[in-house]
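ARCHIVE RECORD
Type: protein–small molecule complex
Small molecule: adenosine-5'-diphosphate
Source of inputs: curated submission
Record status: active
Notes field left blank by submitter.
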Amino acid sequence: MSTRPPLIGPPTGPEPPYPLLMEGTVISGFGRGSKELGIPTANLPVDASLTPWIASIPSGVYFGWASLLLPAAHPDAAPFAPSPYSLFPMVMSIGYNPFYKNTVRSAEVHILHKFAADFYGVPMRLLLAGFIREELDYAGLEALIADINFDCDVARASLARPAWQPKGLGDQGNDGTLDCSWLIRPSEE
Ligand code: ADP
Ligand code: RBF
Ligand code: MG
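STRUCTURE (tokenized, with ligand):
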């Protein structure tokens, strides 16, 4: 892509219809070796009975925050945090992956954190804060990867602003004002 904006959304924070919330258990994806490309994606089931908005939202690339209920034995678990959920910035794709011509609509999340172990089967919650771009087809894998890496930069920079940072979780004054409490709330069961 030639020119793409480095930031999405205004400095005042997410605008309607965002934030959009969804949750589910991390499942196996298409097994295409995204991890080997340096872009592992944690897949969630696309289930319109649990996530009513997912059927009508445009396919494309979104960004926001993800929380994981990692088991205590996972190397990235944060056992002494105020919540059993760990919170991370994320970028995600919802759609048919035109480069691969999928027939099933998928939701896959690349978390902007280097994990020491996989987390299949773990409960994950997402707060979508904004839309980055439509899904595209590409002449080659390198162009797809380059665009995804740019998406990661856009997400990181956009989420670094105070109105896009979680409220009540920062230390030493780098706290944000975005309400992410749903992401770290203990589940009811
Ligand atoms: P699959 O086709 O099964 O989704 P991937 O190659 O996309 O396989 O790898 C996804 C898995 O990698 C996730 O389910 C998760 O357990 C693990 N993983 C490790 N690091 C990350 C990360 N930063 N973001 C998303 N998933 C990650
Ligand atoms: N697949 C596409 O076919 N077209 C896209 O534009 C596209 N954009 C993506 C953006 C992000 C941020 C992520 C995480 C994935 C995207 N994908 C896209 C899905 C990608 O093809 C899939 O994760 C592959 O498994 C990567 O090899
Ligand atoms: Mg995946």
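CURATOR ANNOTATION: The chain has a mean pLDDT of 93.
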